[in-house]
Amino acid sequence: GLLQVVKQCVRVPVFVMIRPRGGDFLYSDREVEVMKADIRLAKLHGADGLVFGALTEDGRIDTELCTALLAVCRPLPVTFHRAFDMVHDPLVALETLISLGFERVLTSGCDSSALEGLSLIKRLAEQAKGRIVVVPGGGITERNLQRILEGSTASEFHCSARSARDSGMKFRNPNVAMGASFSAPEYSIKVTDVAKVRTLNAIAKNIL
């Protein structure tokens, strides 16, 4: 439903993330069934690309599963998401993604944010030599975007560009939380901030 409405409202390409649950990136057979079904439905409803990641229990790219999922995704372009930041050896993992045929890899440089992982992101981009697009992501804001783009030599970047918006609810039950009591206020909604997006775009256009 979200994909259908988004496609009606925007003209930019829409890439859909295929992730059946939170947590790690080691998937069961049933979860793989869900991922394949999600990919088929995303394609059916106009996705311009897909995003997923899968690892083995020892922290390597799950080449067998990725190959199977890529086959379902084609001919759409595919990005390997920040599961990459959990790999045992990022330089080896990058070559694996290139050989499998991923177009992009999203990474914070295997650190808590793209700024802190900047040196590895730059190293990955140099290693890639245009064979795959290395996309910095993780904690990118208007305050650090210029430094990250210049320091990584990246041509693309990823960020949420969100702000919190207070709920319109007037009646509020303080005794009940819908599973979000420790992660976010119950009556607060995170939305894409148009002003932030415009500012980030302006910064990027001056650099790229």
From TrEMBL:
Give one GO molecular function term.
copper ion binding
SUPFAM superfamilies associated with the record: CutC-like
**Subcellular localization:** Cytoplasm; Nucleus
Give the main localization category.
cytoplasm
Keyword check for Nucleus, yes or no: yes
Instruction: List the InterPro entries.
Output: CutC-like, CutC-like_dom_sf
Q: Which Pfam families match?
A: CutC
Q: Which keywords appear in this protein's UniProt record, sorted alphabetically? A: Copper, Cytoplasm, Metal-binding, Nucleus
Q: Which GO terms describe its cellular component?
A: cytoplasm; nucleus
Metal-binding is among the record's keywords: yes
**Biological function:** May play a role in copper homeostasis. Can bind one Cu(1+) per subunit.
Could you give the subunit structure recorded for this chain? Homotetramer.
Q: Its family? A: Belongs to the CutC family.
- The protein in question is named Copper homeostasis protein cutC homolog
